[in-house]
């Protein structure tokens, strides 16, 4: 592959290959000396039109650990503030001959559009409510390390499914890898026809979490709600927030995940987020390793490689 625009289009073998490569980088990242040379001489530009902590920081570290020259560009300090279009901004950067562009944008499809116009490899770091492929890959690596497999597990994704690119990418990946996926959340935050993605749908947490091996919580994305349905925080937490009482509906050895950023006391209680069943910190560690794996895999297809 030349780009990574989504999980859609990746085979189980592609995904397993990236997870295996990611596993090698987990070991490397725990060493004192972390520097590799596979991207030496290459230029990576991170173009973020939406805020980010984890994705941007880990793509920067990942590129640097593989020896690339990495430049970070944020939309708030770019000439888009003066009216330059997305395409013109991207073509301007393209003229500087980057090898890899990592893009986050608030519009679904924006990253694919850029990939069709640019000469370099493009990686989707999250586009609107469409896909966030590296998040799903790092989640899969975290699950595989802790459960020893993905196939046959019941993964329950909870909360604001409607606005979540993380949910979409995870559903695609988990289905491809043979897991069972269930989504649970308020009907107002459930995309119409979600069943067609091959998931079970539940309408309360007791029913939804029954037999879960993995409980994946999502942030309530109030910034994407445009006033249509903005639930009150206390009511939301009461029905859908993961606390110890609701977690007890899942299997005894269920593990808890959250892509971050977390809103404590909204979708997840601190006792659970910081508890023994939580994988949230490990997800962040896997984020660096999996982004190194993606960069390394794409670098093998760069011109003159
Ligand atoms: N999970 C995730 O994408 O986090 P950031 O928005 O901080 O990158």
TrEMBL record:
PANTHER family, per database record: ASPARTATE CARBAMOYLTRANSFERASE, ORNITHINE CARBAMOYLTRANSFERASE, MITOCHONDRIAL
Positions bound to L-aspartate: 82, 165, 219
Gene of this entry: pyrB
Ranges of residues in domain Aspartate/ornithine carbamoyltransferase carbamoyl-P binding: 2-144
Subunit and interaction comment: Heterododecamer (2C3:3R2) of six catalytic PyrB chains organized as two trimers (C3), and six regulatory PyrI chains organized as three dimers (R2).
GO (cellular component) term, any one: cytosol
Pathway assignment: Pyrimidine metabolism; UMP biosynthesis via de novo pathway; (S)-dihydroorotate from bicarbonate: step 2/3
InterPro entries hit by this protein: Asp/Orn_carbamoyltranf_P-bd, Asp/Orn_carbamoylTrfase, Asp/Orn_carbamoylTrfase_sf, Asp_carbamoyltransf, Asp_carbamoyltransf_Asp/Orn-bd
Protein name (database record): Aspartate carbamoyltransferase
Lineage: Bacteria, Pseudomonadati, Pseudomonadota, Alphaproteobacteria, Hyphomicrobiales
Biological source species: Undibacter mobilis
Similarity section: Belongs to the aspartate/ornithine carbamoyltransferase superfamily. ATCase family.
Key words of the record: Pyrimidine biosynthesis, Transferase
One Gene Ontology term from the biological process aspect of the record: amino acid metabolic process
UniProt-annotated binding residues for carbamoyl phosphate: 54-55, 104, 132, 135, 260-261
EC assignment: 2.1.3.2
Reactions performed catalytically: carbamoyl phosphate + L-aspartate = N-carbamoyl-L-aspartate + phosphate + H(+)
Top EC class for this record: transferase
Source organism, top-level taxon: Bacteria
Role according to the record: Reversibly catalyzes the transfer of the carbamoyl group from carbamoyl phosphate (CP) to the N(epsilon) atom of ornithine (ORN) to produce L-citrulline. Catalyzes the condensation of carbamoyl phosphate and aspartate to form carbamoyl aspartate and inorganic phosphate, the committed step in the de novo pyrimidine nucleotide biosynthesis pathway.
């Amino acid at each position: 592959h030349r780009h990574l625009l989504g999980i859609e289009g990746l085979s189980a073998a592609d995904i397993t290959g990236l997870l295996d490569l990611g596993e090698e980088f987990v070991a490397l990242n725990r060493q004192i000396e972390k520097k590799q040379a596979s991207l030496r001489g290459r230029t990576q530009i991170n173009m973020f039109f939406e805020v980010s902590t984890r994705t941007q920081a880990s793509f920067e570290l990942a590129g640097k650990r593989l020896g690339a020259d990495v430049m970070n560009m944020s939309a708030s300090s770019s000439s888009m503030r003066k009216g330059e279009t997305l395409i013109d901004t991207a073509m301007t950067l393209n003229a500087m001959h980057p090898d890899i562009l990592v893009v986050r944008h608030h519009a679904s499809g924006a990253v694919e559009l850029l990939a069709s116009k640019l000469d370099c490899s493009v990686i989707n770091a999250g586009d609107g409510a469409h896909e966030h492929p590296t998040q799903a890959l790092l989640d899969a690596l975290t699950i595989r390390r802790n459960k020893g497999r993905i196939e046959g597990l019941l993964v329950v994704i909870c909360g604001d499914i409607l606005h979540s690119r993380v949910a979409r990418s995870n559903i695609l990946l988990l289905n491809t890898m043979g897991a069972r996926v269930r989504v649970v959340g308020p009907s107002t935050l459930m995309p119409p026809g979600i069943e067609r993605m091959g998931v079970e749908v539940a309408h309360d947490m007791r029913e939804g979490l029954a037999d879960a091996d993995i409980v994946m919580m999502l942030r309530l994305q109030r910034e994407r709600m445009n006033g249509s349905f903005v639930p009150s925080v206390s009511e939301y937490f009461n029905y859908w927030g993961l606390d110890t009482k609701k977690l007890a509906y899942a299997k005894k050895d269920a593990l808890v995940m959250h892509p971050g950023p977390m809103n404590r006391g909204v979708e997840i209680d601190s006792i659970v987020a910081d508890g023994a069943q939580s994988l949230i910190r490990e997800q962040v560690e896997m984020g660096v390793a999996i982004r190194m794996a993606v960069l390394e895999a794409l670098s093998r297809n760069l011109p003159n490689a």
